[in-house]
Design a protein that fits this description.
By secondary structure, the protein is mostly helical. The chain has one domain. The protein is 68% helix and 0% strand. The protein is built from 13 helices and no strands. The chain is elongated, with a radius of gyration of 20 Å. It starts with a helix and ends with a helix.
Length: 271
């Protein structure tokens, strides 16, 4: 069991999930179904309780200056890189909802009993490593652009003025957002169906390994490049919208996207 859960062994043909081709219309439909699930079981208070202590801590550190200040935007935008981890409980609620089971928020914690938990944790560590790599890259970009100025910004207001009024600031925006896009595209390709697939197969008693789930996610993107690109744009747009003002909208956006991801998975992977 440990071998099948933790390793990236090659799956047998019968274990490899079958991937469907979907249309552009399936993407907003998945979002509509995600909104329906959220309305049936609102979980915004749970996300507020988790988000606000973290946001408050980062904001306080940023306002005080220091090394955290230049990483405010990378930290905020990079949250999308670990979003699939935060949405695990939401996937479970959507899975239970489609089976007519109880969907009270307590069942979001049932993931810890899933036979595929080992593989889920392995992919979670992978995302945390990607997130750390993004933060290190963002700091290097800052040091190579704004960091070369004779007088560096001492606070957040000064950083914003520098970013929008100097050539180094514009380079920071261009390079930072360009590299961030590559990181986000990588995570999209690796996780668009892998986490829901692991959770679903594990709950059915047919647990697969992390490697099989990653391959299924990559094949889903290759088979549906345009719908998946549209999905990525929609996710980025909704996360940006939910971040204003003061990230309060994420308490609704994150669970809705979690539910919608589950329904997109249902459309892409043959049951």
């Amino acid at each position: 069991m440990m071998e099948s859960t933790w390793t990236l062994r090659r799956a047998t043909p019968s274990e490899e999930p079958r991937i469907c081709r979907i249309t552009i219309a399936d993407v907003p439909d998945a979002l509509r179904l995600g909104w329906r699930d959220f309305q049936a079981n609102p979980t915004q208070l749970i996300f507020l309780a988790i988000l606000y202590p973290v946001v408050g801590l980062v904001a306080a550190r940023a306002m005080s200056g220091g090394r955290v200040m230049p990483l405010v935007w990378p930290l905020a935008s990079g949250f999308a890189l670990v979003g699939p981890i935060a949405a695990l409980g939401i996937y479970e609620l959507s899975r239970r909802h489609e089976r007519g089971l109880d969907v009270s928020w307590r069942h979001a914690l049932d993931v810890r009993h899933n036979p595929a938990l080992g593989s889920i944790l392995l992919l979670g560590l992978m995302l945390l490593a990607i997130f750390a790599a993004w933060l290190m890259m963002a700091e290097q970009i800052y040091q190579a652009t704004v960091g070369t100025l004779p007088s560096r910004p001492a606070d957040l207001a000064g950083l914003l003025r520098t970013v929008f009024s100097t050539p180094e600031g514009w380079w920071l925006l261009l390079l930072g957002n360009g590299v961030g896009f590559l990181f986000a595209a990588l995570v999209l390709c690796l996780t668009v169906v892998s986490f829901p697939l692991l959770l679903d197969r594990g709950a059915e008693g047919r647990a697969i390994d992390a490697g099989t789930a990653l391959r299924a996610s990559l094949r889903a993107v290759v088979a549906n490049p345009v719908p998946m690109a549209l999905w990525g744009v929609m996710v980025a747009g909704l996360l940006a919208l939910g971040s204003l003002p003061l990230f309060v909208g994420l308490a609704v956006v994150l669970p809705v996207l979690g539910h919608a991801t589950w329904h997109l998975y249902r459309k892409v992977v043959v049951r």
